[in-house]
Amino acid sequence: MSVCSKTGLSKQQQERWPYLYRHLLEEIDIPDFNSVRENDIEKLDSDLKKLIKRIGDAKSKSRESLTKHLSSVIFRRFGKNAIVESFGSSVTNLSIGTGDLDLCLSFKNKTPQKVLRKLSGVLQEEGMDDIQLIPKARIPIVKFRDPRSGLDVDISLDNRLAIYNSMMLKSYAQEERLRRLVLMVKHWASRRGINNAFEGTLSSYAWTLLAIQYAQIVQPPLVPNRQENYTKRPLTFHGKTFDVGFDDEPYSTDNTMSLASLLIGFFDRYATRWDWEAMVVSIRNGAHVSTKEKKWEHVGPLPLEVVTGSDEGRMQHVMPIEDPFDHDHDLSRVLRAEGAMSIQDEFMRAIHMLSEGKSWQDICEPIFDINEEPEDLFHDLRKSSADEVASRLEELRTELEGVEKQIQELVEERQNSKELLELLRGGLQETRNVRSDRQQILSELRPLSLKVQELREVRDGINQRIAIPTKRIHQEMVRIFEKLTSEVDIFNAPTLGVERGYFAYFFELQAMYQASLQSNEAHQEFIRLRREQNQEYRALKKTRKQEEDVLVKLIENNPALEGVHLNPKSVKEFQKNAKLLQRSINQQYSTKHELRREIGRLEAWQRISSKNKRNQQRRSPNPTTRRNRRRPPEVNINEVRQKASSGDSISLNELDALLSKGGIASLNNSEQIKSKQKQRPSKKRTSGRIDIRQGRTRGRKQMRK
Ligand code: CTP
Ligand code: MG
């Protein structure tokens, strides 16, 4: 792969950042915006206006209902201690529809332990997708996606400054051109993939600050500095005090520039006339502050050095942007080298395309597939016949019915599963004492069994050695003892050897007797402990029986519990099942939502196309029908003349005919008419058959003639 010797950029990098690359090679000049044609600016302005109309926050309803839903879920989990507040574009009035939903979770009293983990558990139960915890960030945050609305949500913890800075942005946004400028900058940054702090570019918030700063320094200024004449409002947060006060009064501006001129000015300013080395964007100052003064001079390598691998150090203050309340926070801290390169390239691209009179649509050409609403909601239906639309509608309605049925079934199943879960929990509660008794018994049984075993071994060990019963040993001992202690027949005296044998035998018997007694003792103890052991076993059995009885009762109430064990493991299984069911319900709801939307769209199209058809018919009607319908009834002019002469009331058609045939002057006896008119003027004027105003004026005009 060929690497540029001058810049160090690889072929791939040259293609990735073409404008910046050519600029670095000094192959292209900075365009001069003074020479942009008036026509191009007007065209841009009209493009922007059209776009602004289109990009309204289409998801504002979804945002609202999701906020409500999440708030109630959070209150259920953390109680009244929890506070949920919105911030970001859903409150600043600066949403381009594609943005996320930003929520702040805080607590009135103590923040619960492991709150993010608990929160993510709740979100999981609610069927949210892609849940990510970022607990170590400056502001801990949970990010996820709501599958129903497709909205990305950030819930940050105790993000107090964001609440206040959002209020201030809203205050700036009261100037409609500033609002539109911000929307266009965000739209451009989002489509060109440079508004994601998590991916190493700038946040939408940072882009908003850039637009506000530009609006403050353009001449005459479009917006004032809202932190200049204001009442201080100290807020202590994370051990630091911030002044979150700002001027929220309405403001006016002398600036009359068009949105297009403002947008061109914005790009011109930041692409070519902003010294990022020396200047910090600072809206709280109303103009830049110097990096030197702020001690925010660039540290570490340049983005180009990092991406070309010539320096691996850490970059700091690459595009310094000061947070308006937290003055130590540089919003460009999140920039990665590649992100910074992309931003520079996009600035260069924008100014070149603008100077060439390219359309805003081309300038904002998305760099990745985006799922947008088509410009025309019915674009795909225009070529379909009425029958095709009707049959598609039929299919969708059938599908919707199916989905609704499934939802109903799933909801019932979940309800049943929850009821079983409650029963099981109740059963567990009821048998809690029984289980603790059993634990107690088991804990006593274990040493008891060991002791019984030990005694059995002692007894059996002795009995194996001494097979003679104790009583027999005792009798034998008595016999030998008598032998040894009875008077000796001197004629028949035992020899010394025999006598010694008796003694030895006696001592042996004595030892046997001791052991036999020991065995008896062990046996007695064994018997006693066995009895105790049996009692414990019986008690154990009783607890099982009690549990069984409870379970039997539960099964009587709900046979679905047949085969279920009454233990915490079963409860967990039921809980898991309820969660899975909830997830399926959510999915089905989102399908239902989409189907209903599509059905609504097709129905609207049917209404529109049938109305168009009717209008067309009306515009090119069958001439005979129209003539027949509109033609006034035949009028006999002589009869009318007679009526008019006699002063009788006449209809509008008759009057029309009379006027077209010479009018009242054509009557034979005009004097007669005049006198009749004088006699009965009110009758003519108030006649219900004549439009009084029209009849009178026309009549008078005619009479004046
Ligand atoms: N915020 C902040 N500090 C940051 C980033 C964001 O205080 N470094 C706060 C600001 O209050 C901002 C809000 O988080 O208004 C939302 O940020 P972001 O989503 O970037 O801006 P939005 O205006 O909501 O943009 P989008 O419509 O793209 O969501
Ligand atoms: Mg946002």
Helix-strand layout with pairing:
Layout: H1 11-16, H2 18-24, H3 38-54, H4 60-78, E1 82-87, H5 89-92, E2 101-107, H6 115-125, E3 129-134, E4 141-145, E5 152-157, H7 160-172, H8 176-191, H9 204-217, E6 234-237, E7 240-243, H10 259-272, E8 279-280, E9 289-290, H11 291-294, H12 303-307, H13 337-355, H14 360-363, H15 386-430, H16 432-465, H17 470-485, H18 496-557, H19 568-619, H20 623-630, H21 637-646, H22 652-660, H23 670-679, H24 681-685, H25 692-704
Parallel strand pairs: 2-5
Antiparallel strand pairs: 1-2, 3-4, 4-5, 6-7, 8-9
Helix pairs in contact: 2-13, 8-9, 10-13, 15-18, 15-19, 16-18, 17-18
The structure holds cytidine-5'-triphosphate and magnesium ion.
Magnesium ion binds next to loops.
Summary of the model, kept short:
This protein is mainly α and 705 residues long.
What does this structure look like?
The chain has 705 residues and is mainly alpha-helical. It has a 5-stranded mixed beta sheet with strand order 1-2-5-4-3, with helices on both faces. The radius of gyration is 49 Å and the shape is elongated. It starts with 10 loop residues before the first helix and ends with a helix. The C terminus is likely disordered. The site of magnesium ion has 6 residues, from loops. The site of cytidine-5'-triphosphate (CTP) has 21 residues, from helix 5, helix 7 and helix 9.
